Amino acid sequence: MQSFQVIEETPQYCVETFGPSLPVLITEVLLQADRSANISVKLDNSGWACLVCDRRLFIWRYKQTQAARIGLCYQLALPATELCHRADLICLIPTGGGNSGADSQMVSVLAVSPEGVVRYWPTAHREIAYSERSLELGGQECFTLTAFGKHQCILATTTNQLMMISVSPSTMQSQVEVHTLKSSQGMIARVSSFLFGAQKDETSGLRRVLAGSAESAGYPLYILQDSILQKWFISGPGQEQVVYEKQLDGLFKQQFQREMGASSMENIKVWLLDIQLISNIAVILAGAVNTSSPNQRIKIAIATLKVQVDTDTPTKLESFVVASTPPQDSDDEGALDKHLLLANPGGPHCYIYSQHSIVCCSGLFDQMPSFQEVGFSKAGDSIRGAGCFDGQAIFFSSNHGVITVNTSQSEMPSFIMDDSRTGQTSRLEQSMQQQSMQQQSMQQSSFTTPSARSRPFQVMSASRSRPDTSILETTGDLEEDKTNGLKMAFLHSCKHDMNKAENLVQDLFLQDTFERGKTNSSLDQAVAKLSRELIDDFPASDPRWAESLPQDSVASTGSLILLHQLEDKMKAHEHLVKFIKDVGIWDMLHSVIVRDLPQTTHNLLSEHAEKLSAARALCNKHVKFQGLIDTAVCRALRKRKQDAVPSGLTPRDIFYREVSKMEDIVEALMEEEQDLLSSGLTPQDTVSLISSINTIIQSVLQEAWHLHQSRSLVYQSHNEASGTSLPFIPWIASSGPRGIRMQLVQQHNLTVGRAVANAEDAQSRSGLFQQLQSITDLLLEGYIAQLESSMQADGEDSVQYAELEQRYTQERTTLISPFLEHRQFERAAVLAEKYCDFGILVELCESGTGRKDRLQYYMDQFSNKGFSDFVFKYYIDRGQRGKLLTHFAHRPELSEFLQPHDHLGWLQDIHTNNYSQAQDTLRKLATRESFSVSKKKTLLSLGKLAALASDNDHQREIGEINAELDVITHHEQLPRDLIQKLNLNGDDLPCMTPQQLIELYISERNTNSNEYDFKKALDLLQYLHKEGSHYTDLMVRIWCRAILRDEWNEMQGVDPWDYIKDSIFFKTAAKALQEGLDLTECLPDPDTLMQHYELQGMRDNTRFEYLLRTGFEQIGRSLAAAE
C-alpha cells in the first residue's frame, strides 16, 4: 500500500514521502549510523533502490506494483576495500516485467569496488551465489558504473579509462566479461595534455558518464570531463568510436563574463558540474567564479547545448540562465558538489541538488525561469541519492526515506533576469519615459535661478508622511533642488541618455569638493533621499491611490499587485545604484546620519535594498499568517499615527508602501504576541503562536540578511575616504530597548521558556529548535558584522571593540546554551563551530555523547584561534590535570602551553622523553618550594632520576641535587622535642636554609642538644659561602654555644682533662675529628673564642680560660700524635 505524508509545505513548494515505508533493515542502518558514516543511495527508474553502508549493500523496492512484493529487503556483502564503497558503483538490472523493468519481481546486481573487484549476483535473494572478477587497473580508482543496454554497464575510472562490463542473465552460469574501450583515454588525454600539460599522477575532473537513447545500430555515450564533452557511439564490444569532442570552456566563460561583469574572460574560472539529456539536447550544470573579485563567490548556471545526431560538433549554447541559489565562497568544500536531475524530459522542471539542499527550477525553457531552494540540514538530515520514476523526481532523505518535492509555479518567487536580456522595457523605464514625454518643455536646468524652487523636475513621488529626520536633515532649498536634479539625471539614465545624466551630475555635485568626505554632504543627502523616496514610492497605476499621489508623481512601479510592486521597486533600486556608479559619484559618497549615528551612504543604500527584500518576504507570508500580520500592521500604523486609512485603501496597502520603516513589523508582532500570551492561551495554542511569530520574523530578517551578504560587493566602495572606517550596525542588529537585537533576544527567551516547555511531541520541539537556531544565527551574524566594522574603524585594541566583543561572547554562550541543556547536541555543535564558542564545544565533547574524539578534530580545525590553549586551561581550572596529560600528551601545543605551568610541564617533558628539560624544571620547582620538605624532597628525587635517565651529562646537576637532599636530611633529623616547642608539623616541615637549620640546632630551645647536634651544625657550614665574616662568625658561634652547654666552674680535680673531656665542646671536637673534619680549619683558636660576644660573661673567669687552654693543648697533642 502506498503512503504519502506531507513533511513540509509552503506556498512555494511541498515536500512529501513517496511510496511505502522503508524496510526495517534500512531504517535500522540510518538510525545506527553516525554523522561521519559513508551512506549513499541509488534510486533506479525501475522502482528498485540500493543503499551502501560500509561493505553492506541493501536492495529493496521503493515503488509498489501488482507483481512485486513490498517490504522485502536483501542484504549483500560487497568486496573488501580500503576505500569507501559508493552507490555510484552499483548497477541494478531488473529481470522480468517488460523492457522498463518497472514491474520486475527480481533484480540482478553488479557491484564494483573502488579498486576494481567486480562482483555479480544474478539474483539479489541469493547472497552467496555470485561470480567475481578482479580488474587490472594499475592503481586507478573506479569512479562510476553506468547502465548501458540491458545487460551491460560502462565502468569509468578517475583517470578516464572506460570499460564495458557484460554479464550473463543466466543464474546457472553467470559470467562477467570486460572489454576496455580502445579510445577511452587517447583523445581526452591528448586534449588534457595540450590544455593543462602532462598530469600523469593526477586524476582529472570526470563528472558524468551518460548513456543516450538506443538507436538502430547501437548506443551513444556522453562523457563530461573537466571542460570537455565527448560523444561516443558503441555498437558492441570492440565496436566503439569517438564521434566528436568539444571544448566547452570558452562558451561558458563568455556567458559568465557577461553575467558577472568581468573585465576579461581570463578572470573567469568555470567548472562543468553535471549533464543530463533531453532528446538531442544536453542540459549542463556549470559553476563559475570571477577570480579578480575580492569576494570570490560561485555562481551556478544551467545551459543547453545541441548534441547532434550526426557527427557535427556543437558550436554554441542554445540557452543560458543563472540560477538563483545562495552564494558560496569558492573555497567552500561543498560549493561545487551539485548535481542536475531532469525527471520528465521536455518538461518544465529540473532540480539542482546537493547533500543539504534541493533547488527546484520551474520554466527551464522560459525567458524568466523560477528557482526555489529547499533545505535539508535540519536535525542531521541530508540528501543521500536521487533519481526519477515515471517522470517524477525522487530523492532519498536520511530522515524521511524516499521523498518528492513539488513546486507551485504561481506561488514561487521568480528569479527575474535583467530586462535587457529579454528585450523588454521595465515598468520603471516605461513609467519614467512617459513622465519625460509629459515634461519635455521643462528640460531646462532649474538650479541657475531661484524660480527653480517650484520643483518642476520632481519625477518620483514624495511621501506625505513626516520625513525621517533621523536619516536626513533639511539644510535648505539648495539641497532640495539638488535632490530634484539628481532625480532628473536618473531619469535621463533610464532613457539611456547618459550624456545628459553625466552633465547634470557634473553641474550639481562635482564642483563641491569642499564637502567631500563629510557627513551629510549635499551629495550624500540627495542620494539617500532619492533612495528612500524610491523604496517608499506610491503605486501610481493603482486607482485607489489617485487622491494620495503627489502632483507630478511618477511611480517606480506600474503593477496593481502588491508583490509585483515590491519586485518593481527592487529593480528600480538596482537601476539607481547602477546609475550612481555610471555617473562617477559612487566613490564620492561618504556618510549620512542614521539612527542618530553616522553611517556610510553605501550601507544605507544596501539597507534600503534589504528592506525591500524583507517586505517581499513578509508579503509572501501574509496569506498564511493573515490574521497575525494584519493585526501587527494595524498596530505599527497606530504607532506611526497613520491609522486613518484613505478610502478604498487597506492598512496593508499603507504599510507596504512605506518600505523604509519595515523594521516596525518586528516590534508590532512581538507586542501582539505578548498581548495574546497574556490572555491565557492553552499550552498548544501558546506553542502555535510563538512558532508562527518565529516563522514570520525569521523569514523577513533572513531574506534581508541573505541579500546583505550576497550583494556586499555591489555596495562596496573602493575609496578609502568614503567613510568605510565608520562603525556599522546592520539594521537587523540595531541595539537599544526597541532595537531588533533586543527583540530577537526576547523572542529567543520566550521560545525557550514558553514554547519548548509546552511542546508535546518531538516534531514540534524539533521545529522550535530549528527556529531557535535561525534566530541565534541572525543575532550572532549581526554581532560579527558589527565587530568586523568596529575592528576596522576603532582597531582591535580599542575600548569600544573590547566592550563589544565581551557582550558578543556573553550573548553567544547565553544563546547557544539552551541547545545544550535540552540535548540538542547537533544544533549546539553547528552553532558553536560556526561562531567559535569554545566553551560550548568542550562541554559538548565532555557531555558523554560520544564526541570526545571531536576535541582532537577541533584542535586541528581551530588551531589558529587558540582552541588548544582554551581546552588546556579548561582542564587546569577544573583540577583535571590527569585528564589533560593523559588525553593530550601527544600534542606539541601542550608543551608550549605548559611552559608557564612548571608543576605540569615536567610531566609532559617526561612523556616526550625530554629528560634534560624535565630535571631542570623539577629543580626549579624544588628551589621555589618553601612550605613542604616532603614535596621538595620528592621533586629533587624525581629531578635526579630525570638527570640519570637523560642522554646528556648531568653530573654537576646531580651533585647539586645530592647537596640539597643532604640539607633535607638535616631537616628530618631535627630533635622531636625541638619541633614540638616550635609548633611545627613533624611529618612535613617547612623548608629552611642551612643557616636557619644551624640556628635551630644550636639554639637555647634545643635544651637536649649534644655533640651530635653541634656536629650537624658544623656539617651544614659546607653549604654556606666561606667568603666573608658572616661564615666565620657563625662557625665561632657554634663552638661558643657548645661551650655554654656545660658548667665549667664545677669542673674540679687534680687532672682537668678528666673532666673537660666529657664536655659538649670537646665531645663535638672529638666527633668532628673522628668523622674526618679538619679541626685546623673548623675549630677557632682559644683567643678567638674568648673574644667572641657569646662568651662575654666568661672572659674574666680564669678557671674557664685555664680549662679551655688545657683542652686545646690536649687536642693539639692528639693531632700531633696522629700525624
UniProtKB/TrEMBL annotation:
Keyword Transport part of the UniProt annotation: yes
Name by which UniProt lists this protein: Nuclear pore complex protein Nup133
GO biological process, one term: mRNA transport
Lineage, broadest ranks: Eukaryota, Metazoa, Echinodermata, Eleutherozoa, Echinozoa
Keywords: mRNA transport, Nucleus, Protein transport, Translocation, Transport
Record domain Nucleoporin Nup133/Nup155-like C-terminal: where: 799-982
Pfam family, one: Nucleoporin_N
Bias type Low complexity, positions: 430-446
Superkingdom of this protein's organism: Eukaryota
Gene Ontology CC terms: nuclear pore
Compartment(s) where it occurs, according to its Swiss-Prot or TrEMBL record: Nucleus envelope
Region (Disordered): 414-475
Family: Belongs to the nucleoporin Nup133 family.
All copies of domain Nucleoporin Nup133/Nup155-like N-terminal, residue ranges: 9-392
Gene Ontology terms, MF aspect: structural constituent of nuclear pore
Family annotation (InterPro entries): Nucleoporin_Nup133/Nup155_C (IPR007187), Nucleoporin_Nup133/Nup155_N (IPR014908), Nup133-like (IPR037624), WD40/YVTN_repeat-like_dom_sf (IPR015943)
